[in-house]
Amino acid sequence: MPQIRTDLDAIPAYVPGRSAPGAIKLASNEVTQGPLPAAQQAIVEAAAAGNRYPDISAYALRTELAEQFDTTPENIAVGCGSSALCQQIIQATCTSGDEVLFGWRSFEAYPILTRVALATPVQVPLAADGSLDLDAMAAAITDRTRIIFLCTPNNPTGPALAASDVIRFLEQVPERVTVALDEAYYEYCRRDDKVEGFELALRGAHPNVVAMRTMSKAYGLAGLRVGYMAGSAEIIAAVNKMSVPFSVSAVAQAAAIASLRSGAELLARTDAVIAERERCRAALLELGFSVPVSEANFLWLPLDDAALPFNEWCAERGVLVRAFAGTGVRVSIGAPEEMAAFLDAATAWTHREN
Ligand code: PMP
């Protein structure tokens, strides 16, 4: 038997949202339509050249992103999903025993990737409305803190951070500590005063800020795995060093470039999801559920001990949502008919016999 790291038993595996044939899947914050039409065509064309390794530096994709964000390719990294970029930035900043700070509950991968890197997760409870408690996070910084994740909008609860609150927070963070704004759901946030992580990372007053987005959510490329990050050339170079070679496939690079050029179609899609989110939230509030404001493509039901029973109740009615035991349930926003099926299940739940 080969010797495996003895600390691995204590690290939970990442649990993906459930899926089952024929079921309505509202468990992984995916979009229900396929990739945008231009991306579908790019995928077919790139697949024909699949015998060759991709451009290791993803130069064309980084150039496209640099143009969109008015910067240079040296300030942009791409990765195999923004999950990989989370891992790379942790590895680029932490050595054994260093601390990674984040709100909790938040993206499930943060504590896992932290422990894989032999670093220590420091989890700061969210405020009562499901938003990040920035004052408590600032108070939790120690000499060992190397990186802070600010997930905005926060997965799984939904609220987004205001720019002014983030700027006040950054003023309390020593410059040696990297602050990573994880904007995986940015495209669904319509708050006028929201933080613009890419602006802060590229043109803000604090060189220790990076920001990340993903092509998995609004762009509908979850199956292709592309995420991107902006930051100082020094941090980006360090993040790139932590990558496995060729981590973004040629097909994914081509699909990402085509998707990024389809701005108007993307906006129409995200607008439809937002309208459905608001309709669904209003219906849930009407049914008596507590539902925090969401700026993402999901809603959060803080059901506490009822989270798992509610999850099973929905599954029995053909709707798969995402439960976090003892805490709550996250429901991704799908097509109107899928949300109608979910709301039927939720309505039946409120009428059930206990
Ligand atoms: N950050 C957050 C907050 C997420 O919710 C997710 C996906 N669940 C990711 C990052 C990673 O997305 P991907 O690796 O698909 O780009």
Automatic annotation (TrEMBL):
Xref: Pfam families: Aminotran_1_2
Family annotation (CDD domains): AAT_like
Top enzyme class: transferase
Keywords: Aminotransferase, Pyridoxal phosphate, Transferase
Enzyme Commission number(s): 2.6.1.57
Gene Ontology biological-process annotations: L-histidine biosynthetic process
Signal peptide start-end: none
Catalyzed chemical reaction(s): an aromatic L-alpha-amino acid + 2-oxoglutarate = an aromatic oxo-acid + L-glutamate
Domain Aminotransferase class I/classII large as annotated: residue spans: 24-344
Coiled coil region boundaries: none
List of residues that carry N6-(pyridoxal phosphate)lysine: K217
GO MF: aromatic-amino-acid transaminase activity; histidinol-phosphate transaminase activity; pyridoxal phosphate binding
InterPro entries, per database record: Aminotrans_II_pyridoxalP_BS (IPR001917), Aminotransferase_I/II_large (IPR004839), ArAT (IPR024892), HisP_aminotrans (IPR005861), HistidinolP_aminotransfase (IPR050106), PyrdxlP-dep_Trfase (IPR015424), PyrdxlP-dep_Trfase_major (IPR015421), PyrdxlP-dep_Trfase_small (IPR015422)
Subunit structure, as described in the record: Homodimer.
Similarity comment: family membership: Belongs to the class-II pyridoxal-phosphate-dependent aminotransferase family.
Known function: Aminotransferase that catalyzes the conversion of aromatic amino acids and 2-oxoglutarate into corresponding aromatic oxo acids and L-glutamate.
Name this polypeptide is given: Aromatic amino acid aminotransferase
The species this protein was found in: Dietzia timorensis
Lineage: Bacteria, Bacillati, Actinomycetota, Actinomycetes, Mycobacteriales
Gene: pat
